[in-house]
Design a protein that fits this description.
alpha/beta, Aspartate Aminotransferase, domain 2, 7-stranded mixed β-sheet, about 15% strand, binds pyridoxal-5'-phosphate
């Protein structure tokens, strides 16, 4: 699925850790999962350029410039001033009527696009019937969703939460509990460099980028990181019994769509089996069909013990899910973990609709077909533009790897009214909705092509 030009470094593109970091925060603050990562040269930096570019193309937004005295929203995001008011399929419409082609899906969330008729009908009905009951009572909707997730993954138990980071917290607690109950407590977490797992303390503790961790130390002091693909480090660490879990992504999303070598992952599975370490795959970004298979681990041929899901699962309604084997799940007895909102009736109804679209309305197959068309288009752009090294990814999780900072090109894409994001310093990351049409893919390629002509 990866095509490389001869000029690309054998070890892939530069690590985000190796990027030159600007000393002072940019005017618009951090962009990790922020609204305006669009134009940032690094996913770890805010981008004044983003706001400028957006203001230049979207006069209506200027009134919302960061720092307004009346703005009480915590300034932890570098938000673009673009003020979206409506969505239609793969398009988003701003308050001034400007239409943007959405190849970001709210950072991998809006898999059914915007205002999907079956989702709208089901949620409208659910709102008028039952929204929330708490987890004190039987939930048939959780039973239905978890049964579908079991069919899709072979993992017997499912805990519902509200986000990716919560799904990871639950998985980390499951692993702790599993080993403790087995009479051999193991707190160690082995994780991958460049991995991103979320912002809460446990998930943050396993996230690679120091920029997110350092300001909040002390964190959970149990993580060791190894480089993806470093077989020697894998053999050295995973032949010990120090680790409760090996936590990894199959395709590192926030790092800019970096697929981890499948052989490396399969070897990790073998070593986990040999040492009793649990294999915990974070599929918050790569899961739920984004790659054309329900789990990216299925492409790699690896069966995890624990999987975290979130982003597209509720097609925009917040829901996270942590799946695990029966051996792990059966140890999570009443009181061991919980969430007031997790898996409520509204969120589960959204997940039911999403899973029905994926499996009963052939959306999963469509992701593969659409992904191939998109990859072909990106390959052509890589051949045409000297500063594009290659495209990488699977299904509708793709990146263009550049030989330079991707920020200015992300700005240019925004000027072309294409929503996407610069990640990992030199990558343009695309996460279009699963319902994207062939024409919309071709249109996106034309817009990316124009954006890449920028002399940067
Ligand atoms: C792989 C991965 N794990 C976890 C998270 C955190 O998810 P959330 O922002 O929903 O907490 C993300 C978010 O980008 C992610 O990409």
């Amino acid at each position: 699925m990866t095509t490389r030009k001869a000029t690309e470094r054998a070890d892939g593109a530069q690590s985000p850790q190796a990027e030159p970091q600007s000393g002072a925060p940019r005017a618009t603050g951090s962009t990790r999962e922020g609204g305006s990562k669009q134009a940032t040269g690094s996913p770890h930096e805010g981008s004044a350029r983003t706001a400028e570019a957006a203001r230049a193309t979207h006069a209506g937004g200027a009134a919302h410039a960061a720092g307004s005295a009346h703005d009480h929203v915590l300034p932890s995001y570098a938000r673009s001033p673009i003020d979206f008011v409506r969505g239609e399929g793969a398009w988003m419409i701003a308050s001034d009527g400007a239409r943007y082609l959405d190849f970001l899906s709210g950072i991998g969330v809006n898999a059914l696009g915007h205002a999907h008729p079956r989702l709208v009908a089901a949620l409208s009905e659910q709102l008028g019937t039952l929204v929330h009951t708490s987890n004190l009572y039987r939930s048939r909707s959780q039973e239905r969703v978890s049964a579908r997730l079991f069919e899709a993954t072979g993992l017997e138990y499912c805990f519902f939460s509200n986000s990716g980071t919560e799904a990871n917290e639950a998985g980390l607690k499951m692993a702790r509990r599993f080993h403790k109950e087995a009479g051999a407590p193991r707190a160690g977490v082995l994780a991958l460099e460049d991995g991103f797992h979320g912002r809460t303390f446990g998930a943050l503790s396993a996230t690679w980028n120091e920029k997110y961790r350092k300001p909040f130390e002390p964190l959970v002091p149990t993580t060791t990181w190894i480089a993806p693909g470093d077989s020697d480090a894998l053999e050295r660490e995973l032949t010990t019994r120090d680790y409760g879990v090996f936590l990894c992504e199959v395709i590192q999303g926030e790092a800019g769509v970096r697929p981890v070598d499948f052989g490396f992952l399969r070897r990790a599975r073998e070593l986990c089996d040999a040492t009793g370490t649990l294999l915990f795959v974070d599929e918050v970004q790569s899961g739920c069909g984004r790659t054309g298979r329900f789990l990216a681990s299925q492409i790699a041929g690896v069966q995890p013990d624990i999987v975290s899901l979130a982003k597209p699962l509720g097609a925009g309604v917040p829901i996270g899910a942590t799946l695990c084997t029966a051996a792990i799940g059966s140890r999570m007895t009443p009181g061991t973990h919980g969430s007031t909102f997790g898996g409520n009736a509204l969120a589960c109804r959204a997940a039911e609709v999403f899973l029905a679209e994926l499996f009963d309305h052939e959306l999963l197959d469509r992701v593969t077909i659409a992904g191939e068309r998109f990859a072909l288009g990106l390959d052509k752009l890589a051949k045409k533009h000297d500063h594009v090294t290659c495209q990488q990814g699977h299904g509708l999780m793709r990146a263009l790897v550049l030989d330079r900072d991707a920020g200015p090109f992300a700005d240019a894409m925004l000027r072309e009214h294409l929503l996407a994001i610069a990640s990992g310093g030199n990558r343009l990351r695309f996460l279009p909705p699963f319902i994207v049409s062939d024409d919309e893919i071709d249109e996106a390629i034309a817009r990316i092509d124009r954006a890449l002509t920028l002399d940067a």
